[in-house]
Amino acid sequence: MSQNFDVVVIGAGPGGYIAAIRAAQLGLSTACIEGNPYGDPKGEPRLGGTCLNVGCIPSKALLHSSHLFEDANHHFETNGISVKGVSVDPAKMVARKNAIVDKMTGGIQYLFKKNKVTLLKGYGAFVGQADGQTQVKVTAKDGSEQIVSARNVIIATGSKARHLPNIAVDNQIICDNEGALNFTDVPKKLGVIGAGVIGLELGSVWRRLGAEVTVLEAMPAFLGAADGSIAKEAKKLFEKQGLKFELGVSINDVKTAKKGISISYKDSAGADKTLDCDKLIVSVGRVPNTDNLNLEAVGVKTNERGFIEVNHDCQTAVNGIWAIGDVIPGPMLAHKAEEEGVAVAERIVGQKPHIDYNCIPWVIYTSPEIAWVGRTEEQLKVAGRAYKSGQFPFMANGRALGMDAPEGFVKMIADAATDEILGVHIIGTGASDLIAEAVVAMEFKAAAEDIARVCHPHPSLSEVMKEAALAVDKRTLNM
């Protein structure tokens, strides 16, 4: 006899586990299915999805460790601190990262118990629908199967790294994000295909630790999704740090040998070139995890790119089946998935939550950090919307100077007539935290003047946000 629930969530990543917890908080009997062990030595499912196990959390741990190493080698001296013989132990650094992941995975298990969410260990696949119920088969690691039924099923199976044809990823020599988080030594020469978020972050980690890093990018523009002024500044600062970029390239062939990897490619001018390196990271985006869900059994459709088709409320065309996060169109961001998970749980019980997708922030955790929310100047020009903008540098901020972090700026864009904030773009220390003020302001449809007239603590990095708001009306006070 199958178990019956009000809600079954397939996938325990950021969107899935949050959806399950919120559904349980609302009084719904809830189960969450997860089968991916993410390298667990016992083969047990690990909660938290890609983000916690092989993505956001572990990469930030490595970024922090490598940042400390770089500071000790290159920045302590300017603060009057002399350090000699600084070395790095990659294995210990990776072990620290793994301990953080283990702690957070265990934390989700505790939250499931606290909120009475039933964890079903295994992989979920649809069986069919009958009498207003959807049946899902759960296959455990030992091959045993059980059928569960629910009035509502939330698909939250996330995404996986996109691989390139004819480039075999073994996560030893040629790696995607998973392998690049577990290098046991620092490669002398590291190649990266893809200058997106993952490529820049992981390239930065190993560059700080001593690798010579070259990034090959197919697009002719650097960070095309970011505001042009931010992208230009970022490329300049990253090149100053030692990252090398080749834009507008096309990969011809990748060959592995005992001594490493040889990548042949054409540069933006069509010239044939070769990059030899010890290891290669392939970071060319991600694709939705929908392959083994047996969506056909219930009639759920995907588009030409494999994303599940949903309406604005994350409902599929099939009654009682929802989808959130990386499996549906939109930015592949953990916090976007979390918001959708909460919203779907609340819609199931008849509430009317709202997500403003224009207010979803983006962050790249390089040094300096990059963050933005809303429209870029280029997007507004294409839309023909009249705007005004202001910009203020961290180099004119006392707190930034005291932190030895003068690089970058905050740029604010507002409607030319109403002064409503349309976008905020930051490159600089603490951008990932500073952007939250802009998100709140935009959610409340604030004007640039609203931020300009809010009292910010002194000295603080947040004062750069205030000054950027003042700059929109050409009335900065400290420059």
TrEMBL record:
Residues 360-469 form the Pyridine nucleotide-disulphide oxidoreductase dimerisation domain. Its cofactor is FAD. It catalyses: N(6)-[(R)-dihydrolipoyl]-L-lysyl-[protein] + NAD(+) = N(6)-[(R)-lipoyl]-L-lysyl-[protein] + NADH + H(+). Binds 1 FAD per subunit. The keyword Cell cycle does not apply. It is found in: Cytoplasm. Disulfide bonds join C51-C56. InterPro entries: Class-I_Pyr_Nuc-Dis_Oxidored, FAD/NAD-bd_sf, FAD/NAD-binding_dom, FAD/NAD-linked_Rdtase_dimer_sf, Lipoamide_DH, Pyr_nuc-diS_OxRdtase, Pyr_nucl-diS_OxRdtase_dimer, Pyr_OxRdtase_I_AS. GO terms for molecular function: dihydrolipoyl dehydrogenase (NADH) activity; flavin adenine dinucleotide binding. NAD(+) binds at G194, A195, G196, V197, I198, G199, L200, E201, E217, G285. One of its GO terms (biological process) is 2-oxoglutarate metabolic process. FAD binds at K60, G124, T157, G158, S159, D326, M332, L333, A334, H335. One of its GO terms (cellular component) is cytoplasm. Keywords: Cytoplasm, Disulfide bond, FAD, Flavoprotein, NAD, Nucleotide-binding, Oxidoreductase, Redox-active center. The active site is at H458. Residues 5-341 form the FAD/NAD(P)-binding domain. The active site is a redox-active disulfide bond. Belongs to the class-I pyridine nucleotide-disulfide oxidoreductase family. This is Dihydrolipoyl dehydrogenase. It comes from Formosimonas limnophila. The gene is odhL.
